[in-house]
Write a structure and sequence with these properties.
Layout: E1 2-4, E2 10-12, E3 30-36, H1 39-53, E4 61-69, E5 73-81, E6 86-93, H2 94-107, E7 117-123, E8 126-134
Antiparallel strand pairs: 1-2, 3-8, 4-5, 5-6, 7-8
Length: about 150
């Protein structure tokens, strides 16, 4: 670090010395990605899951999404069938929902970091799949881990 003295000469200063290595903070870098799925993309992912796991979402479009967490997280999805003018509420557990979204990403060639912590969140009424990668083995306690 340099500073100027009153006579125009430059004086050099060294940074303050650390008392010991225990005073040096741990350096940790994390990377965060968030994929927000439109209701239509979510519907397509769920119908693909239906074909693979025999889960039957009702016909129609998704008009509302909620994440509900009591003893386990699940998505509460409201489908509207315009032909019959009916609404149906379906709940999908977090593991099936995450599997559907990950499968959708693979099918659509959307890269997914395998080593990342993955969790579901609600963003402006849409379901998002969030990925966090940590350097030095860090951990984020605010994220519900779905796949380790």
């Amino acid at each position: 670090m340099t500073s100027s003295s009153g006579n125009g000469a430059l004086a050099t200063q060294s940074p303050p010395a650390c008392a010991g290595s225990h005073d040096i903070p741990t350096i940790m870098v994390s990377e965060y990605r968030q994929l927000v799925f439109s209701n239509e993309a979510l519907r397509v992912a769920l119908f693909e899951l239906e074909r693979r796991q025999k889960i039957k979402p009702p016909p129609g479009v998704i008009v509302a999404c909620q994440l509900v967490e009591d003893h386990a997280m699940r998505a509460r999805l409201t489908f509207h069938n315009a032909l019959l003018d009916e609404q149906h509420v379906v709940e999908v557990d977090e593991n099936n929902l995450a599997a559907a979204l990950i499968h959708y990403c693979i099918k659509e060639h959307i890269p997914i970091p395998k080593e990342a912590e993955k969790c579901l969140k609600l963003v402006d009424g849409s379901i998002s799949l969030n990925f966090t990668l940590y350097q030095n083995g860090g951990e984020d306690q605010r994220c519900v881990t779905l796949i380790g």
